[in-house]
Design goal:
The complex is a heterodimer of chains A (110) and B (131). Helices cover 83% and strands 0% of the residues of chain A. By secondary structure, chain A is mainly alpha-helical. Chain B is built from three helices and seven strands, in the order H-E-E-E-E-E-H-E-E-H. The chains are: A mainly alpha (110), B alpha+beta (131).
Chain lengths: 110, 131
């Protein structure tokens, strides 16, 4: 448990609705769920743009660019700056994974 | 990410603004586990594309200088097929997730392995190239 400063007036008003600690935790939880969902949505939009461009998900792309010589040559021709895309694509893919895990963790405890 | 990461990205931005023109921030994102900076700028009549990703364990980069869509310099550490093969030969499949610093030149017709490079190293190369 951590200590945070909250305006006295908020605490007084919260008392009218029940146990202050419980209500504060519920409010923070609700806030976090909202922010995490926004974050996942944003990351999904970014990933979808790359999936549309390359016609596959990141893990398939990474595997093919490393193991399939013909595909590597083809992408170098069609998207010569694909490395720039790949770094960002991986970034948002990992963001989705991490934030989804955090969301599930919060939801499983609530 | 920590304050150090933010400072690192700010430093790249400052260097880019000092040396290049029309610096455009395409993406700037700092999250809990990683950070991303993506820039586009120009150096005289040439285009510069920069992507930097910092994670808790690694730094990934891709710095490119283009002239009329032809790649003059491409510095990155993405573990692509020829770079992996050059470094590890037939056992490259065991190193697929490892950063492999390398340079592309001659419109990606030539690839050589390098030491890990920074944005400042890239700027020096661009400066030498444009001289």
């Amino acid at each position: 448990m951590g200590a945070v400063a909250i305006k006295e007036s908020y605490i007084d008003t919260l008392r009218a609705f029940g146990e202050v600690d419980k209500l504060l935790n519920e409010a923070v939880e609700e806030y976090l769920i909202g922010r995490i969902i926004e974050r996942i949505k944003r990351a999904r939009q970014e990933v979808q743009a790359f999936e549309k461009t390359y016609g596959m998900n990141y893990s398939t792309f990474a595997e093919r660019i490393q193991l399939d010589g013909d595909y590597y040559e083809q992408v170098n021709q069609s998207h010569p700056l694909w490395e720039q895309d790949a770094l960002e694509w991986k970034y948002w893919t990992e963001e989705i994974s991490d934030w989804t895990e955090k969301l599930n963790s919060i939801l499983s405890k609530s | 990410m920590d304050r150090e990461t933010e400072q690192h990205l700010e430093q790249i931005l400052t260097l880019a603004r000092q040396s290049f023109s029309a610096v455009e921030i395409i993406k700037y994102d700092i999250s809990e586990e990683r950070a991303l900076l993506k820039l586009k700028c120009t150096c005289e009549h040439r285009d510069v594309f920069v992507t930097e990703v910092i994670t808790q364990r690694e730094r990934w980069y891709s710095y490119y200088l283009l002239e009329s869509k032809a790649i003059l310099i491409g510095l990155d550490n993405y573990p692509d097929r020829p770079a992996l093969r050059l470094k590890y030969g037939d056992t490259f499949g065991q190193h697929l997730h490892e950063p492999i610093p390398h340079i592309h030149t001659e419109n990606k017709q030539k690839l050589e392995l390098t030491e890990e490079q920074t944005f400042a190293d890239f700027m020096q190369m661009v400066s030498d190239f444009c001289r």
